[in-house]
């Protein structure tokens, strides 16, 4: 392969943000936090190690995911509670907010809806930022560990990958057959997972999560939500995933209801207003 004489000049071209977020209305975190301070817990789900669980959060409620007992990462799926065709869009969330999300960022739904599903209100791991390897926490780049890739790379069958955990959880919550529920499982928010891309090869890497018992990430549900969370079989993802070798721990999901009137002036966002004509 021949290097062109202007290779250095081509590499030196300055980057341009694809989707500048300046025109997005920023969330009113002060108002959200004031409402959260008056909220009461209305439900909780403990997701067992190497398993999945579902929860529901109504529009205007808060939900918190907490690491308990030991360092553990989780894979999160979100759907509109009454329409599984509207689901979390990790790719557009990544394009709008970056490879890793934190306080003030939003989780967006798929086309044609494209509206905020949830807003991150608090994150005890915000301090981490990006480390010397380019690693950050809460990524929207990984897809989820799944039994198909496991079979491709390792052979054999393993039924506690996050994809399978989420499938079983959704099937149990909705009554759908497992094969039908699987079609609704989608790319995830990797909660607490520490990941990045190698600069030399561009390969996706994981490393030990900085999460510790008591750490949490908390969201405002912008619409009525059905959520599913898998306690990843990789534990803190320091060495492996999709196996029974890693130490794994539960994850706690709690849902909180704010006091009446605490979110005065807030309203649940409507689906995207594009006409859907796809022509002039």
Write structural notes for this entry.
This protein has 280 residues and is of the alpha+beta class. It has one domain. Helix content is 17%, strand content 29%. It is built from six helices and 13 strands. The longest helix is centred in the middle third of the chain and has 13 residues, at 162-174. The radius of gyration is 20 Å and the shape is globular. It starts with 6 loop residues before the first helix and ends in a 23-residue tail after the last strand.
Short description:
The protein has 280 residues and is an alpha+beta fold. Helix content is 17%, strand content 29%.
Number of helices: 6
Number of strands: 13
Order of helices and strands: HHEEEEEHEEEHHHEEEEE
Rg computed from alpha carbons, rounded to a whole number of angstroms: 20 Å
Q: Low-confidence spans: pLDDT under 50, at least 5 residues?
A: none
Write down the domain tally.
1
Query: What would the principal axes of the Cα set say about the shape?
Result: globular
Averaging pLDDT over every residue, what do you get?
Answer: 96
- Describe the oligomeric state of these chains in a short phrase: single chain
Structural class: alpha+beta
Taken as a percent bin, the fraction of beta residues is: 25-35%
Largest sheet: 7 strands, antiparallel
Distance between the termini: 45 Å
Helix content: 10-25%
């Amino acid at each position: 392969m021949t290097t062109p004489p202007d290779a250095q000049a081509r590499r030196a071209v300055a980057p341009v943000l694809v989707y500048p977020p300046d025109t997005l209305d920023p969330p009113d975190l002060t108002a959200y936090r004031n409402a959260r301070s008056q909220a009461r817990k209305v439900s909780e789900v403990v997701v067992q190690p190497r398993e999945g669980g579902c929860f529901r959060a109504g529009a205007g409620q808060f939900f918190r995911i907490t690491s308990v007992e030991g360092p553990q990462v989780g894979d999160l799926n979100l759907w509109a509670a009454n329409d599984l065709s509207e689901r979390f869009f990790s790719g557009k969330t990544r394009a709008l907010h970056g490879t890793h999300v934190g306080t003030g960022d939003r989780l967006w739904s798929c086309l044609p809806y494209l509206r905020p599903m949830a807003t991150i209100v608090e994150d005890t791991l915000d301090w981490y930022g990006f480390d010397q390897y380019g690693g950050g926490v809460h990524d929207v780049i990984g897809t989820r560990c799944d039994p198909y890739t496991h079979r491709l790379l390792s052979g054999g069958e393993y039924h506690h990958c996050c994809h399978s955990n989420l499938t079983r959880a959704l099937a149990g919550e909705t009554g759908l057959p497992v094969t039908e529920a699987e079609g609704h499982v989608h790319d995830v928010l990797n909660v607490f997972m520490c990941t990045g891309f190698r600069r030399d090869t561009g390969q996706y890497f994981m490393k030990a999560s900085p999460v510790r018992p008591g750490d949490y990430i908390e969201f405002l549900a912008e619409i009525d939500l059905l959520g599913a969370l898998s306690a990843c079989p990789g534990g803190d993802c320091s060495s492996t995933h999709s196996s029974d070798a890693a130490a794994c721990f539960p994850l706690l999901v709690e849902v909180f209801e704010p006091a009446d009137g605490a979110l005065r002036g807030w309203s649940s966002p409507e689906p995207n207003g594009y006409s859907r004509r796809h022509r002039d």
